[in-house]
Each structure stands twice: as C-alpha cells, then as structure tokens.
C-alpha cells in the first residue's frame, strides 16, 4: 500500500516480527477458510449484558402487543394482521441482531507481521505497509484497531455494545437491517399503544384488556417510553449508516477527517458493495448467506473472541 499521512497518526512504526520473537501466532495459523467456518463472538461483559437487555426489551414489547392489546381485542382481523406484522418485524430484528453479533466484522489475522509473510507479499521497491503494534498484524488500508475486540477491523465504523461487536466490512449490512427493523417495530408499537389508549378511554378499561386497569396503564406507558427511545436511537443510527455507505466513509474516518486515498463507491455503488448485488428484496433478508457453523475442537487463545 502506498504511504499516506493520515495513516501515520494511528499506527506506530515497529520492526516486523522475526522467528525469534515471543509473540504467540498460533491464532493466525489456521487458513482463512477455516476461520470463516467458525462463529465469531466477543467475550465482553458489558456487550453481553447490553445484547441480553436488547432481546429482553424486544420480548417485552412483543408480550405487551400480543397479550395486552391484540388478543383481548374483539376485532379478529385487526388482531391477526397487526400480530403477524409486529411479530415478523420482531423476528427480523432479532435475526439481524444475531447476524451482526455472530458475524466476523472483518478482523485482520493476528500475528501475520512475520518475515516469511512479508516475503510472500512480493512488495515493490519503496512500497510501504504498516504493522499494528497492538495485535501484531499487517494493517490494511482503512482498518482500525478495536480495543474491545483487540483486533484490527477492516472498514471499522464503530464498536456497538448493543450488538456486542464491531460494525465493519462484513457485518454492516446486518447492523443496518437491525436498526431499520427495530425502528419500524417501534413505530408500529407506538401506533398500537395510541389506538389502545383511545379504545380504553372511549369504552371500559376492564373490557379493553385482560389485565387490571393499573397494570394495563403501566405496561402501555413503559412500552411507549421504550418505543420512543428505541425509535429515536435506531432511526438516527440507520440514517448515519446509510449516509456513511452512500459516501463510502466510515464514522471513524469522518470523525478523524481522513482524506480518502481509495476509490470511493458513492450512492448505489456503495449500497451494492455492502448489501451485495443489484437492489432486490434479498437486501431485506438477514438470513441470506446463513449457514451452520462447526463447533470448535479446542479452545483458542490470544483474544476476547472465540468460536461457538
């Protein structure tokens, strides 16, 4: 890679590893195909708690919508249509969350900054590459080191504790879908809450829900607060992600005001590169490309990530 001034600010110049170095490079000994065959998971306490809280909040919303508002309704088709729509949005949101959390965001192999690897690159005279001093890897262009994942991530946008993972080159699509489906589900829940309040005020509180009036009010108010917070957060994140994709600029690159040294893929070209292929309904499906991963035969060392 050609040298560029903006790369010098976040990369220290260290000598490349040699055979006599004590760095344990066993984590990088497997091939890329072997690495791709394992599920990625970050062992971060805060991230795991945030991920569990996210799931519990979605399950709570589904409980209130289904058992407090829809099942007691006397309008059969109103309950069926809204129940199917909301539950589909919830399933798609949680599926997108899982894919974001369990997909390798584009981690660079650890400890590949060896003399042998350098020789295999067949670099041209004067060509400059950089080594990350934290995970001892050859740092590709647009990669940044994540202190939580303890890896360099290609096209790293940010580390999101709510999905317990970095958002990078390989899982940005699933993160965009997650924020979109959560925002849509939040809007749907808010509309249903509004209709439920109107129905209960016009009629009898004892008849509009199977729960007592005080419990119904508390459940609906909490769902409204959750819906407002979730919608605000995910709508903003969805907008910033789409803006970053259309401008081919990650959030880190924008905050650091890094001048692009790569050929930008703007607007639809950027969307195609992230979601894959021409626009289609497959863009909206978080399960596209999913395949079962194998279980690890032995524990891996050298980082907070592991295979499941």
Automatic annotation (TrEMBL):
Alphabetic keyword roster: Acyltransferase, Membrane, Transferase, Transmembrane, Transmembrane helix
Any single GO molecular-function term of the entry would be: protein-cysteine S-palmitoyltransferase activity
Highest rank taxon of the organism: Eukaryota
- UniProt domain Palmitoyltransferase DHHC: residue ranges: 131-257
Q: What is its EC number?
A: 2.3.1.225
Top-tier EC class: transferase
- Spell out where the chain crosses the membrane: 48-70, 76-94, 174-197, 217-238
Supply the PROSITE patterns for this chain: DHHC
- Record has Metal-binding as a keyword: no
The answer to keyword Acyltransferase applying to this record is yes
Q: Which InterPro entries match?
A: Palmitoyltrfase_DHHC, PFA4/ZDH16/20/ERF2-like
> Which Pfam families did the record assign?
DHHC (PF01529)
Location in or out of the cell: Membrane
Reactions catalysed, semicolon-separated, are: L-cysteinyl-[protein] + hexadecanoyl-CoA = S-hexadecanoyl-L-cysteinyl-[protein] + CoA
What's an example GO cellular component term for this entry?
membrane
Bilayer topology reads: Multi-pass membrane protein
Q: What is known of its domains?
A: The DHHC domain is required for palmitoyltransferase activity.
The similarity annotation says:
Belongs to the DHHC palmitoyltransferase family.
Its recorded name reads: Palmitoyltransferase
State the organism of origin: Eschrichtius robustus (California gray whale)
